[in-house]
Design a protein that fits this description.
The chain is an all-alpha fold and 486 residues long. The chain has a domain of 307 residues: 3'5'-cyclic nucleotide phosphodiesterase, catalytic domain (Catalytic domain of cyclic nucleotide phosphodiesterase 4b2b, Orthogonal Bundle), CATH 1.10.1300. The protein has a three-stranded antiparallel beta sheet. Helix 10 packs across helix 18 and helix 17 packs parallel to helix 20. The protein binds zinc ion. Zinc ion binds next to helix 10. Pfam families: PDEase_I. Keywords: cGMP, Hydrolase, Metal-binding. This is Phosphodiesterase. Its cofactor is a divalent metal cation. It catalyses: 3',5'-cyclic GMP + H2O = GMP + H(+).
């Protein structure tokens, strides 16, 4: 839908719809009708210009002129063009390619038109500045504006069985609807005593969680269910490792909240893509953990709205501490920093000191990292579908990289990667070493978390052997049949 927001695409759409050649000159007028620019091009879209075509307009053409004017107005309001120039240029190139390949049909143009109308109404109804600020971040019109009323998600009464299972890493994360996951998350904050001890408004908590849900995208992997999984694993670890005996309630709040927020508004394409494609996020954050910085920024934009600020009752000093702690944990989830963070933890673990702030901070970073990549800790039936989700997201990225002529990581290439090959290395060289280091501090995780990892590694190694044998067989068959093939 958003392709209609880019000037080049608008021009394409306009020309296709009116049957004019792409080389037609479309001129821009200001609101008094004075000529601004003889040709429609990217850089003029930062301003409130009308748009006119120098020929006699039919009704249909007038309609499209209207649409164009509306889009131009929205565009200039919502986007700061200078900051976005690089991003826009990249997107345009891609879109041009796509339009050429697919060709735009009239039906699609009609659909674009109605989508633009809907979008316009939506934007008109949300004329607060936070929305516009965020709309430049968010590709698909997510709602950062909190709901003014009390969230209406049905109060799911969690059964005693569910409440108990929720504390275990074996919890089946697939059988719950978003509303039920929201109730579970809400329950965790209550159950840990955070709401009571830290004086969190329970209605604000509901509204905040709902807003969190609305700001996760429906990616194959980095979606609200992933957020739920990571938070549920954190909750399990808090019990399993008796963290409430070692940490303050503020630390527990930071751990849980960072887990909830850690992938907010993830676009489904990783940092490497952001950097190589020179996206708006990469430009904004100077290629330094662009996604994690974005997740953090979105999280605190949500907190900046009083209806969603679960920290409203904290004094400024406490808020500062929570903000710093949460940012630190979300930024720690960038896997590019894995070695650095794990090494730092290894240096402390043998003489770990829970009264040393630096030690505790480092442990919290490792804990959120563990939870973020903890799917393989879960039972095979729960863990395995996540591998398919991750590969789907990877393939989406590598396909796009191919189309845009960007470098492709081998582990994302559908020609090269299989489920076992994707998992074995990751379990052996990332997961097990990290969890075994944490095990030095909390031996109780061996049985519940490390053992399942070892079993998963063994299972994928068996699967790989079967794959290899099949490929070997195919190869030799091809060799013997080689000369006889048609
Ligand atoms: Zn994550």
């Amino acid at each position: 839908i958003y392709i209609s927001l880019y000037p080049c695409d608008i021009k394409e759409l306009f020309c296709t719809a009116t049957g004019l050649s792409r080389n037609t000159t479309i001129s821009l007028l200001d609101s008094t009708g004075a000529m601004i620019c003889e040709t429609l091009h990217t850089s003029v879209f930062g301003h409130d210009y009308g748009c006119g075509l120098f020929s006699h307009l039919s009704d249909k053409e007038e309609l499209f002129q209207n649409v164009l004017t509306q889009v131009a107005e929205q565009f200039s309001r919502a986007f700061k063009i200078n900051e976005l120039k690089t991003e826009v240029t990249n997107r345009l190139a891609m879109l041009e390619k796509r339009v050429e390949l697919e060709g735009m049909k009239v039906v699609e143009i009609e659909k674009c038109r109605s989508d633009i109308k809907k979008l316009r109404e939506e934007m008109a109804s949300r004329n607060n500045s936070a929305f516009y600020l965020c709309s430049s971040f968010l590709d698909d019109n997510k709602k950062l504006t909190p709901r003014r009323d009390v969230p209406s998600y049905p109060k799911y009464h969690l059964s005693q069985e569910t409440v108990e299972a929720l504390r275990q890493p074996i919890f089946d994360v697939w059988q719950w609807e978003p509303n039920e996951m929201l109730s579970c998350l809400e329950h965790m904050y209550h159950d840990l005593g955070l709401v009571k001890d830290l004086n969190i408004n329970p209605i604000t908590l509901k509204r905040w969680l709902l807003c969190i849900h609305d700001n996760y995208r429906s990616n194959p992997f980095h979606n609200f269910r992933h957020c739920f999984c990571v938070t549920q694993m954190m909750y399990s670890m808090i019990y399993l490792c008796n963290l409430q005996e070692k940490f303050t309630q503020v630390d527990i709040l930071i751990l849980m909240t960072a887990a909830v927020c850690h992938d907010l508004d993830h676009p489904g394409y990783n940092n490497t893509y952001q950097i190589n494609a020179r996206t708006e996020l990469a430009v904004r954050y100077n290629d330094i953990s662009p996604l994690e910085n974005h997740h953090c920024a979105v999280a605190f934009q949500i907190f900046s709205q009083s209806d969603c600020n679960i920290f409203a009752n904290f004094d400024p000093e406490a808020f500062k501490q929570i903000r710093q702690g949460t940012i630190n944990l979300i930024l720690a989830t960038d896997m590019a920093r894995h070695g650095e963070i794990l090494d730092s933890f290894k240096q402390k673990v043998d003489y770990f000191d829970f009264t040393n702030e630096e030690h505790v901070t480092c442990l919290k970073m490792v804990l959120i990292k563990c939870c973020d990549i903890s799917n393989e800790v879960r039972p095979m039936e729960v863990a395995e579908p996540w591998v398919d989700c991750l590969l789907e997201e990877y393939f989406m990225q590598s396909d796009r990289e191919k189309a845009e002529g960007l470098p492709i990581a081998p582990f994302m290439d559908r020609e090269k990667v299989t489920k076992p090959t994707a998992q074995i290395g990751f379990i052996k060289f990332v997961l097990i070493p990290m969890f075994e280091t944490v095990m030095k501090l909390f031996p109780q995780i061996e049985e519940v978390m490390v053992q399942p990892l070892r079993e998963s590694r063994d299972r994928y190694e068996e699967l790989k052997q079967i794959d290899d044998a099949m490929n070997e067989k195919k190869k030799s068959e091809n060799l013997t049949m080689g000369g006889k093939k048609k």
